Amino acid sequence: MAKSAPQKDAKTQETMTLKDNRNGKSYELPILEGTMGPDVVDIRKLYAEADVFTFDPSFTATGSCKSRITFIDGEKGQLLHRGYSIEELAEKSNFMEVCHALLYGDLPNEKEYEEFVHNITYHTMVHEQVNFFYRGFRRDAHPMAIMCGVVAALSAFYHDSLDIWDPEQREISAHRLIAKMPTLAAMTYKYSIGQPFMYPRNDLSFAENFLYMCFAVPAEPYKVNPVLADAMDKILILHADHEQNASTSTVRMAGSSQANPFACIAAGIACLWGPAHGGANQAVLEMLDEIGHKDNIPEFLERAKDKDDPFRLMGFGHRVYKNFDPRAAVLKKSCDAVLKDLGVKDDRLELAMELERIALEDPYFVERKLFPNVDFYSGIILKAMGFPVEMFTVLFAVSRTVGWISQWKEMIEEPSLRIGRPRQLYDGAAPRKYVPISKRK
Ligand code: SDX
Known about the structure:
Number of strands: 6
Oligomer: single chain
Bound molecules: s-citryldethia Coenzyme A
Largest sheet: 3 strands, antiparallel
């Protein structure tokens, strides 16, 4: 298990002094150091001592927790899971190994790997009653709407594993969620195209099984294309976890109220759906279709710069990466391999590469360090695999579930778990008396 950096004792503790010029008082705030990345100023006692809150509405400068799972250096374009670089994991590992590392702290040895894969494999089926939830949705319901519903509903089936304080129940819930997300996602896709659900197969790998459940039909045998299975496994690795992003923070907040893990993951799915977050991969394809031809790129770049125009260059920019997103670099390579192997010529790939080339020469994007992020190329691969754009964020959720549940588990195992409860700067009405309606203007 990776250890967190030892904290200094009170004598050697470094501090930051905060001086309140309104009354001349000073406050010594402890500085905590991690293994890597910026130190943090511990403000937990500030309100009690100085009667002030800090103010950071979108948490651009706020550390919400201590974590040992993922490290990102936005300046260097570095992403580590339990210390392993995303580039090495994408090239040398597989999604089941990465799941084990995220969940338990390290890559598994052979025995641990075999046991983990067996546990996940034997939890891939869902209760037959789950099928009936799908019947309540229209066939053209957005797949993310269905996933929010059916994943939260899983908590109705597992009364034996909702005690979040029991380590064994936490573990089986984590296995069930990791294992069942691809099954539910495939069912969501099948439901949208009017085809029968395909049951999981225990003789296939995680990625192969997912592709099988999506694209096989009962009428004939189906052989999973190994190139697609490899690309899918890579996509699952690249989307698995990403520090305290919006959906992970949502899962942690829900978990801090001691809600059950299925409800917490459903909350994460809802947050991921937003086009500013996981919904961007769908929005990238829609944007490329709207641009249509490389001759139209300059017009759309001008729109992206226009503050009065809501158009944004989807798949560009990132709250943390102020350099390239290492995941986009890996996906760009996979794009070429998948399209070549499939013999697919998707004009959108050329258009995307031309858009990237022109944008990265444009001062507006360079000054604001707006580089392609993970969502810029993923959609092109998924489209080539045969997925409709509406399924792209569902696939993101299938992968990110292991990150969400690993972060949730880490939080629950913290001895100091308390409900998350941010405060505010109130600038509303001062106290005033009730006025009867007859006397209101
Ligand atoms: C993901 O957090 C994570 O880790 C998320 C994620 C994960 O794995 O969990 O990495 C997955 O969500 C990736 C991001 C996918 N979203 C998109 O591709 C949507 C398009 N990107 C933007 O909406 C935006 O870049 C965000 C939301 C990603 C980041 O927004 P920030 O950090 O709040 O940045 P900002 O909006 O303050 O932008 C800074 C400047 C602004 O201009 P100025 O006010 O300085 O003049 O850059 C501009 C913005 O207008 N800008 C863009 C832009 N992104 C930012 N201008 C045009 N096109 C864009 N895409």
